[in-house]
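Researcher: Re-running this chain for the archive, since the previous output was lost when a drive failed. Same request as before.
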Amino acid sequence: MTQNEREWNRAKEMLTAEIVRLGFPPELGEQIARQLGGPKAMNRMLSYLRYTQPRKAEVIVDEMLAIRSEIEAWREKKAAEEANAKYNEMLYFGLDVENPEEDERDD
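Model: Regenerated structure tokens:
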């Protein structure tokens, strides 16, 4: 098992244990962990659960959806920033296209 897998499993176990401690079935914790995907998101959810102590599963699911939405917005922002940086580079340096007339003279 890799370090990342161990970290993911540890975060999933902690999240599931907290959900069970709040009185919900462990299956809810496992599904929340799968939906969140990564340890950072699971730790964020764990902090939320410890702070708010929600009493309804709907509140937990709503927070999970909010976290996922924020993660997706962050990914889209980073992709847009990368595309913008490449576009600006292209404007500054121009296209790296060879002159077709030069190719004909080389023959």
